Amino acid sequence: MPLTEQTRAAAREIIARYPEGRSRSALLPMLHLVQSEQGAVTAEGVEFCAEELGITHAEVSAVATFYTMYKRRPVGDWLVSVCTNLSCLLRGGEEVYERLSKNLGVGHDQTTEDGTITLEHAECLAACDYAPVMTVNYEFYDQVNPDSAEEIVEALRRGERPAPTRGGPLCTFGESSFQLAGFEDPRPEGVAGQGVGTPSLAGVLLAEAAGWKAEDGVAGAPPLTPLPSNAPPSAASAPAAPASSSPASSSAAAPASPAPAPGTPGVPQTKVN
Amino acid sequence: MPVTPVLTRRWTAPESWTLATYERLDGYQGLRRALAQSPDDLIKLVKDSGLRGRGGAGFPTGMKWGFIPQGDGKPHYLVINADEGEPGTCKDAPLMKADPHSLIEGIVIAAYAVRANRAFIYLRGELIHAGRRLRAAVAEAYRAGYLGRDILGSGFDLDLVVHSGAGAYICGEETALLDSLEGRRGQPRLRPPFPATHGLYASPTVVNNVETIATVPFIVNYGVDWFRSMGRERAPGPKIYSLSGHVTHPGQYEAPMGTTLRELLDMAGGVLGGRKLKAWTPGGSSTPLLTADHLDVPLDFEGVQEAGSLLGTAALMIMDDSVDMLKIVRRLTQFYAHESCGKCTPCREGTTWMVQILSRMERGQGDPDDVDTLVDACDNIFGRAFCALADGATSPIVSGIKFFRNEFLPITPVGPSGSTTSVAGSANGAAAGGAAAGTPGAYAGAH
């Protein structure tokens, strides 16, 4: 698909985000943009970026070949990335990768013949507490095992869009790349998709269950309750005399609080966000 | 008070990522207080709080802000390092997803303090959902007058752009990040000059980690005494500890600086399956491994350093007694070889060669000199590159050999098929011997 005037307009929108005379900062998002149209950074995409930014092809290519997420060959419909770095390796990530590779008949950075799946093993995806993880077009499937990963990939090949554990509902590689170029996800269900699950909340749930609060260490400091907006700036840190403080006394210290803090009995809570 | 949810406290609130929830839970109160003070007073406040960078190096944040020359007539920039990628590190991603406004509020306060009118969040590309939440939050903040022109009537202007990277661990290194943000290959710069005077676009720039900046509104709101009531004298405040690997309940545990692994493991249900602890990283794969002898090391900057490692990002990857240390070290070295940007010869060539040696050893084809060769190579890599990636690459090898030398020494090969091994064995009974594992068993330590 050739790049259009619409792509050019989007590119100029990207350039406008950066200070005047610093348009080259737009290069990374623009490479995501041309990839969103063509499924890879093509020669035309390189030319387009060079022309818009007034830099050379060599300068653009040097950047395009440096970063893992820019693809030189068109990606399949679904980019399946399996983390095999340490935390995931310890929990079976390598076995997940091996199973998918065997079943799909492709290795790292290769695409199935039908063009549906590109497989890659990924370096740490910053979700170590959900290990082993895999992503499809960068949405997370947590705590997978070889069987569940195989089911997800089979569903993708059947044309289904299995719901990720965390992230927005699956969108196409082109749509993902467009968001990476810095454009908002137009779907309300995109931003609302689950962001964190139980592992991210492990500590805070433990604290809520036990009634531990950070303010218990300092008498009189009510950090977890809303402050009266007209309080003088020093009020919050002013030390009070008694050394013992309980959750009850700290909420009493802020009588003007318009809403209870999370963890207060009666406040509805979601365990996922 | 084993867990102290401060940064993580809003994460369980319904729709925690929205401005409405954030404002209901103290949101942007710190900003109002900050704008009523002078920028210099804010820098002093953060200095007095003792806040130290949460991105790995532990540099005093207030001091970093104080290095920005004032009245120099140049534009100043604030850049947030959200390129979370150090293996084991998974704290900034949930923070940005669950509580993006806390980062934005911290950014506005920090930018006001260092007199920057432009700020960027350099977000790791793969974290697409964090990008959604951040971009939505930035748009909300603009609409509510927390960003843009004349913020809350203070006369202060700030523009904030969320900039997605494209997959490169090296961009977590601050000068490589700046080059990347300028539209170049992410390769580290020679220092000096430092970013404080010659950063983004050769202008004075503060680069701070997500967790560091998200801590700032709390300090402004609740003060130095409160902040210093947690943690240690030289490293006060709460810290998000990330537990992963062979642990019963992996996750984020926000606790006072200086909490020990023993305490954290207690909270997290202990080592998975009740097995014995063999090794762990205190702060990601670039920090030297520690062992069960270090369970009571206080996990703050100095405490871990005294134990021979580094706090790094407080990413604790737990390994039980079933792991094959040679395989672990080989895999981590592959990571560094893949992520080396190629600028410095010792790192580019050294990591590649070390992967080959370690892989050969793992296949049972090592020779007795290999351990010395590896240690010698690490000696010649450490401190001989522009940035800390090279130093980090030597950590698993040197510490692995230090504590588990036997596992790196060849013995007479066992039977032709070798014994089976699986680092995942205790986790879910996964099958042993993936293709990459070769035929271990030829080494004394292989299980």
Automatic annotation (TrEMBL), chain A:
Q: Which Pfam families match?
A: 2Fe-2S_thioredx (PF01257)
**Which residue windows does the record flag with biased composition (Low complexity)?**
232-256
Keywords of the record: 2Fe-2S, Iron, Iron-sulfur, Metal-binding
Iron as UniProt keyword: yes
The UniProt annotation puts the region (Disordered) at 217-273
Q: Which domain of life is it from?
A: Bacteria
InterPro entries according to UniProt: NuoE-like (IPR002023), NuoE_dom (IPR042128), NuoE_N (IPR041921), Thioredoxin-like_sf (IPR036249)
The cofactors it requires, by name, are:
[2Fe-2S] cluster
Q: Which family does it belong to?
A: Belongs to the complex I 24 kDa subunit family.
NCBIfam families, alphabetically?
nuoE_fam, PRK07539.1-1
Which protein are we looking at? NADH-quinone oxidoreductase subunit E
Automatic annotation (TrEMBL), chain B:
Where do the coiled-coil regions begin and end?
none
Sorted alphabetically, which SUPFAM superfamilies does this protein's record hold? Nqo1 FMN-binding domain-like (SSF142019), Nqo1 middle domain-like (SSF142984), Nqo1C-terminal domain-like (SSF140490)
A molecular function (GO) held by this record is: FMN binding
- Name the InterPro entries on file: ComplexI_51kDa_subunit, NADH-UbQ_OxRdtase_51kDa_CS, NADH-UbQ_OxRdtase_suF, Nuo51_FMN-bd, Nuo51_FMN-bd_sf, Nuop51_4Fe4S-bd, Nuop51_4Fe4S-bd_sf, Soluble_ligand-bd
Which SMART domains does the record associate with it?
A: NADH_4Fe-4S (SM00928)
One GO BP annotation is: cellular respiration
Under which EC number(s) is this enzyme classified?
7.1.1.-
Specify the NADH-ubiquinone oxidoreductase 51kDa subunit iron-sulphur binding domain's residue ranges: 326-371
What catalytic reaction does the record list?
Answer: a quinone + NADH + 5 H(+)(in) = a quinol + NAD(+) + 4 H(+)(out)
Return any one Pfam family short name: Complex1_51K
Which cofactors is this protein said to need? [4Fe-4S] cluster; FMN
Q: Name the UniProt key words of this record, in alphabetical order.
A: 4Fe-4S, Flavoprotein, FMN, Iron, Iron-sulfur, Metal-binding, NAD, Quinone, Translocase
The entry sums up its family as follows: Belongs to the complex I 51 kDa subunit family.
Which NCBIfam families is this protein grouped with?
nuoF_fam, PRK13596.1
| Function text | NDH-1 shuttles electrons from NADH, via FMN and iron-sulfur (Fe-S) centers, to quinones in the respiratory chain.
The molecule here is called: NADH-quinone oxidoreductase subunit F
Its source organism is: Parafrankia soli
Kindly list the organism's lineage. Bacteria, Bacillati, Actinomycetota, Actinomycetes, Frankiales
